[in-house]
Amino acid sequence: MSRSQLPLALAPPRRLRFSNFVIGSNKPLIATLRLCPGEGEWYVLSGPAGSGKTHLALALEQEWREQGQRVRYIPAGAASAAVLLDPPGTPDSMPDCAIVDGLERLVGQPEAERALFNALNRWRAARSTVLMTLSGVPEFDLPDLASRVGQAARLTLRPLEDQHLDALLDQLFEDFQLVPGRGLKDYLLRHGPRAPARLTGLLDRINRRAQAERRVASVPLARECLENL
Question: What's the maximum distance between 2 C-alpha atoms anywhere in the chain?
Fold first, then answer.
């Protein structure tokens, strides 16, 4: 195998932590999240799609685990979400903290809605701390579920302003160990997506292609990646 055919060692996946979350104008919200867990407290973290809710949910999961909490993280978009929400078990297996990420993905799925309702009832009885994330206003078919979710304190994630997007790009360049070519940052600020998750996905794609094709992370490469985003 020639040198040019040797597989490249790609950078490890980006770790989602509080330390690399660009806060913007969300400092009070972050402070509230990190004061958790208060026994039996429920929160709903809402915000537009791609605004960073999953980043915060995973960062909080890691922080809770480091504090010795028993944590259950459930991605609501997973095919097995209903099973994860309503597994067989005993009161001793109840989590100290539960996270349901992407609540809106359960809307209109009777089995999943019922599983979430049952899980919330069990977690309430066990005094578990609960964090739910969602985009928009979910219109559940199960009225009792809407009532349960409505009992949680609401935290709203604010979108990043221009200066915060600039800081986010700097953080992403660092996280991906990516050296930007001339003009790349300005190009992305003008033409790239504004949602943090989509901007992160674009940088990940640019980084992977730059490594795989042995190219500079340049404006032309970014333009190609944007066309296929």
Answer: 64
